[in-house]
Each structure stands twice: as structure tokens, then as C-alpha cells.
Amino acid sequence: MLHTSHVRRAGRKLLAAATVLAATVGVSVAVSTQSRAAVTGPCDIYASGNTPCVAAHSTTRALYGTYSGSLYQVRRASDNATANIGVLSAGGYANAAAQDSFCANTTCVITVIYDQSGRGNHLTQAPAGGAASGPDNLADATAAPTVLNGHAAYGVFVAPGTGYRNDHTSGIATGDQPEGEYAILDGTHYNGGCCFDYGNAETDNHDDGNGTMEAIYFGNIKVWGYGSGTGPWIMADMENGLYSGVNKGLNSNDPTINYRFTTAIIKGTANLWSIRGGNAQSGGLSTFYSGPRPNVAGYNPMKKQGAIILGIGGDNSKGSAGTFYEGVMTSGYPSDATENAVQANIVAAGYSTSSSTGGLTPGSRISLRATTSCCTSDYIRHDDADSKAVISAISAGSSATDKADATWIVRAGLSNSSCVSFESANASGQFLRHFNYELYLNSNDGSSQFAQDATFCAKPGNSGQGTSFQSVNYPTKYIRHYAYTVYIASNGGSNAWDSTNLWSDDTSWGVSAPWA
Questions:
Q1: φ, ψ for residue 279 (rounded to 5)?
Q2: Are 242 and 210 a contacting pair, CB within 8 Å?
Q3: How far apart (Å, rounded) are the C-alpha atoms in residues 431 and 411?
């Protein structure tokens, strides 16, 4: 959808788009010999509890201690070539540097999330379904940066319209067979759309009635069931109902849970199911519901069909938002003790948001890409016509000057060394600074005022993706694009660029490889 509140200023020329090659080239990334995540993985723990994984998906790490294969595949826009992204070592973390190299100077989407269980239950682009046409969108491969024990990785950022699926699976529970599911999610990235799910769904992409699904749901929709507070909540999507307990509507024991990294668990067996959850960065799990199936006809016994979905509902409802890092499905109903051991393994993996600032190393070169849906090929650059900062499209086919205009050298913040300043890559000594809330490229005059105006503190993206840059001397204002011009803007205010419409998206930036 177009960014309706933004209008290109007259005379602004779009830069040339890259030529797309017809052939797709497959590239595999070799595994190096460093950085083990853990001696055992979550699926080793499930196996020891006699509830083995039958699907294991992660773009951040291996889920078995011996797994050394590919985690996911990316496709770049410049030539439609693909690359399989593996691990740094068997049982280790994702080789994010391989993705960064492969996707340099272009954009990438995640095309496949590989199943590590050996059963071939890979997730690919979801097709059309009863609720929405398809195929669904694929996730931007760089939109959900994270770090695990100091190692950069990327999650799966699901914007509305994005979805993955596998309708031809092996070993996934059907009928009333027992199963367990967990997912690590971004507890701050959600909405009230239907339905951000991970788990068991229909094999025909249609609503086949009560009990034909059993998936983890995360969000704050209140159409069916909901929990205490304002949400988000972990609930079970069992088709024709998101359940937070045995009844429809409010179940107060299911709390709002919004840890930045949230562990979400749903498990079910004959007339028994549970909701569990916790902080994926620390502590243990809590049980929010454990009891009979919903007291509505059709849920006992269950009629599960055994497809796997991510980011959508069973009928391809795709109005949801969320971020997925890892998750599994098991054969059998896992014990609480097994899940508690899995939670300890997850905590030990060391998820953090450090990547939002960790890539901003003084002296490094970067480009800053808009993440709003209108403008994902646009980058902050200085305008050759004047000294203003703008966003415009940059591609592999752009001129050397345009690429350099969109490249910045990260410097320790001129007024606060724990923050950053951005020096132009092709205009030495000139920095991005705000004046009357608009950003310009100006020479550093050495004054305290300039130093403050040119210093920004990197924060996790306000939209849940990328990085936001807070003005050091106007801390309620962040670098924002509006009408293709760049400002510092607050979320609401008297200026047009302070509009609340799309503020969180417009103030979130993808830190990308430099164009020059």
C-alpha cells in the first residue's frame, strides 16, 4: 500500500532501478569452525523426554547440538539469486555475516525456513486460502536483527500480508494425537489482526471447522478469547476460536505477556491442553491454563490435519504482525519438566537486542534504509541540489555519486560518545545535523550546539524492526522521513512531520551494508 501521507517533492527524481537477471543462481554458505551455541539444543532435550521434535525451525541458531545444515534461504532482489544460510559450527549460531555479504547493496527476502528435524517440514511462501488470496509476501531478511550471546542473527519479521506454510508434512500430529509447540517471539511486535500463528493447521488452506487447528497465537485480538490486561496474550488457535482457557471471552489467568523475547507454548492431548509462557531472556515458565478442551462442540476430540503455518491463520487470514525467531513441534505431549529444561536452554542462548546498536561501530560505513512499506528501497542521502537530507531510491544501477551520497561513516557521538554521529562518506567533515527540526548536511563548526544537533542515540526500532535514532538534545524526537524529507519528529505534535500516522514505521531504519 502506498504511504498516503507522503508526497514526493516536485522535481525529485527517482534513481535508476537495477537490472534484474533472469537466471536464479543457488549459493550455499559453508559452515565455519567456531562459536557453538550449546552442547545440546532444545530438540535434544525434547528427545530425552520421549517427545521428539518433528519440526524445528529457526533463523537464529541450530536446535540440535549436532545440526550443521542450513537454517534458511534468502533471495536477493538484484539478480534473484538465492543463498542458504547455515550455522557457524554444528549446534551453533546463524552465520549472519554470510547473509550480510550476499545481500550487500541490495535487499533480500527469506524464501525458505528449513526444518532441522530431518523430516523435510520446511516452510515456504504461503499460497492463497479461503480468507485471502496469495501467494503471501515473504519476510524482509534484515528487518528483525538480534544477537545471541554476542553473535548477530536475524529473525522472521511478519508484516501484515506475510506468511509461510507447509501443507505436505511428515510426522505432525493429526486427529486427537498429542503434540507440543513452542516459539520465541518478539513480545513488543504484535497487532489485533488475524492471525499471527505458528503450529498445526489445515492442509487445504481453508477453515474446516472447530478443532482442525492447534497453533500458538500471539497478539491482542479480542474477537474470540482474550486474557487479562490489554494484551498481547498467548492463546491457542483451534480454528473458529482463539482460546485463552476453557471458555470463550475473558480468561483472567492468561496474562498480558510482552517480554522483548517471549517464550510461548501450546500443547495438547486427549481433552487436555495447556498455555505456558515466560521471558526468553531470564527465569522460568509459568502455566496460564491447563485443563479440558473448550466447552464448545467440535473441540473434543480434536480433528487436527497436520499442516504447519507461520504468521497466518489456517485459512490464510493474514492481517497479523509479529516476529518469530525459533520454534518446534513435537510428537507427544511434553512434560512441564521437559519444557522447563528447554526454557533454560533458550535463556542460555542469550537473546538480546544489542544488534540494534552493535552494528554501529565507529569508523564503519553504513547506509540507512527506510522500513515503511512505501519506501523500502529508499535510503537517507544528502541532496546534491542543496544541503537537505532526503530519502530516495538507491539500487545497484545507481550512479557512483548517488551511492556515495547514501553512505555514512559512523563516528562516536560528537556530544555523547555512547551515541553516534553520521559523517558523509563523500563530503569529509560534514555531518547530518538537525536545524529547525529538519536534517541537513553541514560542516562541523566545533561548537557545542553543532555537536548536540549532530548526535543521535541508537535504540531498538520503534516499530519493532530495525533501529531508531533519538536526538540527544530533543529526546522525544527521532530521525524520521516525511514527504521524502528527513526530520527529527515526535509521535504527535504541532508540525506536519510529527504526525502519528506511520510514525513508528517512519522512525525505524534498516542499518544496511554501505552503498559506497
A1: -85, 120
A2: no
A3: 10
Contact 90, 116 (CB under 8 A): no
Q: Is 84 helix (H, G, I), strand (E, B) or coil?
A: strand
Mean pLDDT of the chain: 89
Question: Rounded to the nearest 5 degrees, what angle is found at the Cα of 363, between the Cα atoms of 361 and 364?
Answer: 60
Supply the pLDDT for residue 188.
86
Is the model more confident about 489 or about 104?
489
Spell out the residues 6+ positions from residue 357 whose beta carbon is closer than 8 angstroms to its own.
458, 459, 467
Q: pLDDT for 153-206, tens place per residue?
A: 999 999 899 999 999 999 999 999 999 999 999 998 899 999 999 999 999 999
- 239 counts as catalytic: yes
Task: Quote the CA–CA distance of 495 and 408 in Å, as a whole number.
Answer: 27
* Per-residue pLDDT tens over the stretch 90-136: 999 999 989 989 988 788 999 999 999 999 999 999 999 999 998 99
In this structure, what C-alpha cell is assigned to residue 284?
522460568
319 within 8 A of 298, measured Cβ to Cβ: no
Candidates 140, 197, 239, 505; catalytic one: 239
Report the pLDDT value the prediction gives residue 39, as an integer from 0 to 100: 67
CATH architecture of the domain covering 365-512: Trefoil (2.80)
**What pLDDT is stored for residue 359 in this prediction?**
58
pTM flag (> 0.90): no
Torsion over CA of 204, 266, 273 and 234, rounded to 10 degrees? -100
- Count of beta carbons in the 10 Å neighbourhood of residue 88: 23
Calpha distance 54→40 (Å, rounded): 17
Name the active-site residue from 214, 315, 423, 498: 315
The domains of the chain are located at 26-353, 365-512
From the centroid of its chain, how far is CA 73? 15
Does the annotation mark 181 as catalytic?
Answer: no
Amino acid in position 189: H
Q: Show the cell assigned to 229.
A: 490486561
What span, in angstroms and rounded, lies between the C-alpha atoms of 65 and 36? 9
The answer to whether domain 26-353 has CATH 3.30.470.20 is: no
pLDDT at 35: 38
Helix/strand/coil (H/E/C) assignment for every residue in 53-77:
EEEEEECCECCCCCCCCCCEEEEEC
pLDDT by residue (tens digit) across 28-79?
Answer: 333 333 333 446 999 999 999 999 999 999 999 999 999 999 999 999 999 9
What is the mean predicted confidence (pLDDT) over 377-387?
A: 92
DSSP 282: S
Give yes or no on whether 26-353 and 365-512 have one common fold: no
For residue 451, what is the enclosing H or E element?
A: helix 448-453
| Confidence band of 149 (pLDDT split at 50, 70, 90) | confident
